[in-house]
Amino acid sequence: MKIALSTALALIAAPLAAQDFSEGSKARSWNLYAEVPARFEAKVVDVTCELTGNCVEDCGAGSRQMGLLRTADDVLVLAMKNSQANFMGAARDLALYCNQTVTVDGLMIEDEDLNVKNVFQVQTILVDGADKPAKANKGSKLWAADHPEAKGKGAWFRRDPRVKAIIADEGYLGLGLEEDKTYAEENF
């Protein structure tokens, strides 16, 4: 386990070796701190499977963190977000391409001072032979289909039954319901 973890950390932390993945990128800027447009070919992988060998069918069908094993340098890029503005992760969008090699386009977040590397916001996914790339924006529709009981207005995560259960158990601050009550009394 120690060897697998150290190998995984080396894959994630490996330097880009001055490679520029911005060529050909059509990614839309979000004006994020340290964003860089990036377009590259990669194998879509289940991060848990890649790092520990604990693998499940279909990469967990979107229930596990997805990653991109970049073809150019075998670096594991963490696909943390899709192209939606509503704070959707990329897992559901990328799980559709489990273990396939695709070309992704989006925004890489890199900051040497903060030691942040290979964090990616995927905007489009192109499968070899396809006429045009697919937009990475399916997260909210897939979530809505999974949770028809959570219909309504407002942010999806405020209606998500999993989030509501955690808040009911641990409070909004994650410190327990009593701490939430004390905080509210002292600050509101």
Name the overall outline. globular
* Poorly predicted ranges: 13-18
Strand numbers in spatial order across the main sheet: 1-2-3-5-4
- How many beta-strand elements? 6
List the secondary-structure elements in sequence, H or E.
HEHEEHEEEHHHH
Straight-line N-to-C gap? 48 Å
Helix content: 25-40%
Biggest pleated-sheet summary: 5 strands, mixed, barrel
Domain count: 2
- Strand proportion, as a percent range, falls in 25-35%
Estimate the mean pLDDT confidence.
87
Using only C-alpha atoms, the radius of gyration works out to 19 Å
Please give the count of helices.
Answer: 7
Which class of secondary structure composition applies to the elements?
A: alpha+beta
Question: How would you explain this protein's 3D organization?
Answer:
Helix content is 30%, strand content 26%. Mean pLDDT is 87; it is low at 13-18. With 188 residues, it is of the alpha+beta class. The protein has seven helices and six strands; from the N terminus they run αβαββαβββαααα. The chain is globular and about 55 Å long. It has a five-stranded mixed barrel. It has two domains: 2-136, no CATH class; 147-187, no CATH class.
Present the secondary structure layout.
Elements: H1 2-13, E1 35-46, H2 47-52, E2 66-70, E3 76-81, H3 91-95, E4 101-111, E5 116-127, E6 134-135, H4 139-146, H5 156-159, H6 161-170, H7 177-187
Parallel strand pairs: 3-5
Antiparallel strand pairs: 1-2, 1-4, 2-3, 4-5, 5-6
